[in-house]
Amino acid sequence: MGLNHLPKHVPLANLPTRIEKLERFTKAMGGPEIWIKRDDQTGTELSGNKVRKLEFAIQEALDQSCDYLITCGGIQSNHARATAVSAAKLGMGAVLLLVGEDGIKPEGNHLLDLLVGAEVRFVSGKDYAENRQSIMDGIRTELQEKGHKAYIIPEGASNGIGAFGYVKAMTEIHQQEKELGFQFDCIVSATGSGGTYGGMLLGDALGGHARRMLGFAVGKDRGYFQREVAKILTEAASYLQEVPRHYSEIEINDDYIGKGYALSSPELIEFIRDFARLEGIVLDPVYTGKAMFGLAEEIRKGNLKDCKRLLFVHTGGLFGLLGKAGDFGQIAGR
Ligand SMILES: *Cc1c(COP(=O)(O)O)cnc(C)c1O
After folding, report:
1. Which residue's CA is the closest to the ligand 1 atom numbered 3?
2. Which of 50, 111, 135, 267 is 20 to 30 A from 321 (CA-CA)?
3. Known catalytic residues?
4. Domains of the chain (ranges, CATH numbers)
5. CA 29, CA 292: separation in Å to the nearest integer?
């Protein structure tokens, strides 16, 4: 089906990423085999899931002869950082609208944003929630008056075009399954704005599969993501000549959000520490740590008994962790 007819993309990521078995974690959990896809290794400066989505979004910007990228996110946005780095790699300008205020000491992703030359503009949380689109439109007009043409990428590049990054990732997984000689029954990931999840669901359907796809929400609730993913799928379909008739169910678990987006409990931080010591793999507190914690709990509760082999997609986030030394400081050493 349509897999040969994906939109064009600009190659930025280090692909394919490896799939490894989590030997000791699998043993400790005593449940299904747990494997991990290392999308935290899509690059160094470009590490994480966002670069896959940006490969497609930025190609669209280049096709429209744009020389600037505008996007938005939290102060430790992995997406904003990946956009800033991609812009620098392609000789484009970048303006980032981040939630924060002047005087913040740059750390983690924010520090990298500045290092690669992106212009950062701060907004309040309220303005971000209510007016970010009109503010970004205003920046585009401002750039236009200076002779530039800017392309606006929505939060997380989670729109129709961005989702193709994970349609393509799914074809990569299909190929790797051929090499491994088996198929995963369930694919697990963290869901922040829905593009990764939506892209994988579409990619699996285009490949003729309909396997269980489990997303752990990290901020907003299940209903929100069911609507959001459906919207992304509709938008993505407009780029395809042929649309799949069957998708897997949109299965979002919102039981492990905790206190809210980007807020972490000591229990979560301890889980991340223990996992790092067990496997030598660092999860982040905002996304992948919450999702892996949720997965461990679900296995413990016996809710994944029908799965023999799970694939957890490690979507990155290391720089965000480095921007949260305050939360980790005391626990890491214990
Ligand atoms: C953005 C992000 C996610 C969530 O991906 P979405 O496509 O926004 O749902 C997961 N993990 C990390 C590390 C991220 O930066």
Report:
1. 192
2. 135
3. 77
4. 3-48+159-332 (3.40.50.1100), 50-157 (3.40.50.1100)
5. 12
